[in-house]
């Protein structure tokens, strides 16, 4: 039996509800983990924030509420219902002592409900059964079990919660229906008179003979069942909210990692793009400048005019390379247009003085192919170029149809291929450059005949790093195309096929 419903019969029911309203007070006891506490502290009111940050205060409050209710219902039952007149003073005393001892054990168990909620709920359930067996009532353990089940539902999986809840509730309800003392005490509370019934045993037999769901049994069953289900419902709601916040945090963390990874990939791609552009510019310009310088030194004695022209071309190539590098480095500035300090100007009147730093200009593309080829020719590389469209019409016009990115890719592929020919096939008879602009693809083929016997590689060159070919393949792949490079007859051939609808990076 629980004395709470009987008390509610004499007191207003709202007061009985206020007395057992402790489950709501234990909500902070299911304090979330550090991450959840940190997230929600700013959104909580001052009282809840205080309780969440000080779980010891909540634990003390839970123990005090349970202890007060258990002492009130267990020890005060005699004064409210006059059980001593029927059971005897000694029996009532033993019941009160047992109630106090079990209350102390229950209070001690509830202090551990955070760390071992399932075990604590089971222990409180066993203590409740012992209370029924020794005092004839739940002696406040209907509330103690609700507090333990709330902590369990707020922390454990639902399957664990419902298994423990079912086992403890069934044990209490079965004890209240089977044990003789609960049946006798409940019948006395409901007004049974042992003198008229023929003694306490007759009262107990009559209560046992009632229907399974009798009013006598309901004195214990209703509060135990209602409080247990309410505690599990509230605890499950708290757990669901906690899991929802955890999922939000995990999603935010995953999004942050994804954004960071995207940023790293973008930075790596940008570094690779800049490195590719710098390699193409430096490798081409330095190779041409070395060839021009070598030619100027050879022609210095017997053809000074040719030597002077080669030196002028060398200066022009260096100036062009400097401008190209300035354009590439310009993208490293935040706004993309911040000026880069120009090199110190030579003295006035110097015929080779550099022009003032020009503003950032577009990257080279297909229309700049003629100037590129002419620069290689001046460096001593015999180049023959053919540019045609899908109907076979020759001329530079087809290259103007290409967008800027695709035009730059075509330009760089030809530039790198001719640079390699200048470095490794010095003295070659001819270098063929063929560009075919189709509806869906652009095909670039650069073929050299190889160095003439005895000429060897170009002047001032060493073994290649293969970065140029790697960069060319990356450019082709960026447009959904392919690039093949390898020996062809006595020379070397580079063949690239780029899709016109490729994204390009």
From TrEMBL:
MF terms (GO), sorted A to Z: ATP binding; phosphorelay sensor kinase activity; protein dimerization activity
Record-level GO cellular component terms: membrane
Region annotation Disordered: where it falls in the sequence: 1-37, 335-371, 449-468
Start-end of Low complexity biased regions: 19-35
Record bears the keyword Electron transport: no
InterPro entries per UniProt: HATPase_C_sf (IPR036890), HATPase_dom (IPR003594), Sensor_HK_TwoCompSys (IPR050482), Sig_transdc_His_kin_sub3_dim/P (IPR011712)
SUPFAM superfamilies: ATPase domain of HSP90 chaperone/DNA topoisomerase II/histidine kinase
Location of the Histidine kinase/HSP90-like ATPase domain: 409-498
Ranges of biased composition (kind: Pro residues): 340-349
Parts of the chain that traverse the membrane: 56-75, 95-111, 118-139, 159-179, 211-234
Amino acid composition bias (Gly residues), ranges on this chain: 453-465
Residue span(s) of domain Signal transduction histidine kinase subgroup 3 dimerisation and phosphoacceptor: 270-335
Reaction it catalyzes: ATP + protein L-histidine = ADP + protein N-phospho-L-histidine
Record keywords: ATP-binding, Kinase, Membrane, Nucleotide-binding, Phosphoprotein, Transferase, Transmembrane, Transmembrane helix, Two-component regulatory system
Keyword match Aminoacyl-tRNA synthetase: no
EC number: 2.7.13.3
UniProt protein name: histidine kinase
Organism: Kineococcus radiotolerans
